[in-house]
Specification:
CATH superfamily of the largest domain: Creatinase/methionine aminopeptidase superfamily
Shape: elongated
Number of domains: 2
CATH architecture of the largest domain: Alpha-Beta Complex
Distance between the termini: 43 Å
CATH class of the largest domain: Alpha Beta
Helix content: 25-40%
Number of helices: 9
Order of helices and strands: HEHEEEHEHEHHHEEEEHHEEEEEEE
Number of strands: 17
Oligomer: single chain
Radius of gyration: 24 Å
Largest sheet: 6 strands, mixed
CATH topology of the largest domain: Creatine Amidinohydrolase
Length: 395
């Protein structure tokens, strides 16, 4: 992974805007990848001891390092306080945080935003015992981790073009098998996609979801190598693909499309899919209108709007998950999620971030989902790839 250089001036500007005295970074055994990315930190040696790095709202940063690993923060500005014993660690923390009252850490109250909850409860207790208030760094993380660069946007768009092409190829493969009566199952389609990812210079953290009929009602279904469901005429097929370029700092493209192996889609499937398409489009319009007007829109508001559309069509009982998630270097990124179901995400949607809008309905015998990626900049918001409006018919 290509690490960015820490932007100290920008961090301090945001700390001042937020009314914080500083941002305290902590790690042990490289458990907080967000800290390393925001700080642009890549230690040359092993990290097996606790380190702390405090960026005040004004003034020079200060670090606290164990004498076993005194050079772990050498690449970062500011003096470093050494410690060996736990008593020295606590004394060092007092010096590190002297004068501060309110600091941000990778902590989330009630673990409302798990993606930033990387600091353990005991460490939060330790900092509070020194008389400080600890607040969540979630909004800071969004600014310094979830925002894309122009180069990342271009990599996302290119990944989208390749993934969309592979998605089309996968459906063509299914169509030919259905037409000729060739044996093909979910696992076979999944492995076809994985081969094409590799051939097209794409990588992913997990193989795609290929779900037939009732398996499409399993949100994170993974077809088994043995006993995978066959794909035949009259079957519904859900295809969920996510991948990124095999390049440093690349970001994901993540989509879900629906197909039916036949000419006439059964009415219950067609009607359920029409509801999720309508909900998706309503959510997209809400984001676009807010972005164009410069109006602050928060993640939970998008979820409420989209799920409200589904509820108005009498299908709320079939909702199983949030409307969407942040997209970044990981397919589930560290920015605002479109979520007031699994969590209450109050973070605002900010320019140069991307997220999915993926309403879904999971019925007793089948599931339907449509997923697009929405990118927001200073001028507005747009869907970055192709948009499905009806079932792909494979016959």
């Amino acid at each position: 992974m290509l690490l960015q250089i820490m932007n100290l001036e920008a961090i301090q500007v945001e700390l001042q805007k937020a009314g914080l005295d500083g941002w305290l970074f902590f790690d042990h055994h490289e458990r907080d990848p967000l800290a390393y990315r925001v700080l642009g930190l890549k230690p040359k040696g092993h990290v097996s001891r606790r380190w702390y790095y405090f960026i005040p709202a004004r003034g020079q940063p200060l670090g606290l390092v164990h004498q076993v690993e005194p050079h772990v923060l050498d690449s970062l500005p500011g003096a470093k306080i050494p410690y060996a014993r736990w008593q020295e660690q606590e004394a060092g923390l007092r010096k590190l945080l002297q004068g501060a009252k309110r600091v941000a850490m990778q902590y989330s109250p009630r673990c409302a935003i798990p993606y930033v909850a990387n600091v353990d409860a005991g460490t939060v207790e330790l900092i509070r015992s020194l008389g400080l208030e600890v607040v969540s760094s979630a909004e800071l993380i969004q600014i310094f981790e979830a925002k894309w660069t122009p180069a990342q946007l271009e990599m996302h768009l290119e990944a989208g073009r390749r993934v969309d092409r592979i998605r089309h190829e996968a459906f063509e493969r299914i169509k030919q098998a259905v037409r000729t009566g060739q044996s093909l199952d979910e696992y076979g389609v999944q492995q076809f996609v994985m081969r094409r990812f590799q051939e097209c210079g794409l990588v992913t953290d997990w193989p795609p979801i290929v779900g037939v009929n009732i398996n499409a009602a399993d949100s994170h279904y993974s077809p088994p190598e043995s006993g995978s469901a066959p794909i035949r005429r009259g079957d519904l097929v859900l295809l969920d693909l996510w991948a990124k370029l095999d390049e440093p700092d690349a970001v994901y493209y993540d989509i879900t499309w629906m197909a039916f192996c036949g000419e006439d889609v059964p009415a219950p499937m067609r009607e359920a899919f029409a509801v999720v398409v309508g909900a998706r489009d309503a959510g997209i319009r809400l984001v676009q209108e807010a972005a164009a007007a410069g109006r602050t829109l928060r993640g939970f508001e998008v979820d409420d709007f989209v799920s409200g559309y589904i509820a108005a069509h009498g299908m709320a009982r079939y909702i199983r998950h949030r409307t969407g998630h942040s997209i970044g270097r990981e397919v589930h990124g560290a920015g605002a999620n479109m979520d007031n179901m699994e969590t209450h995400d109050e973070r605002p949607i900010i320019p140069w971030t991307c997220f999915s809008v993926e309403p879904a309905l999971y019925l007793p015998t089948f599931g339907v989902r449509t997923e697009v990626n929405v990118f927001v900049d200073e001028r507005g918001a747009r869907v970055t790839g192709e948009i499905q409006t009806e079932f792909v018919r494979l016959f």
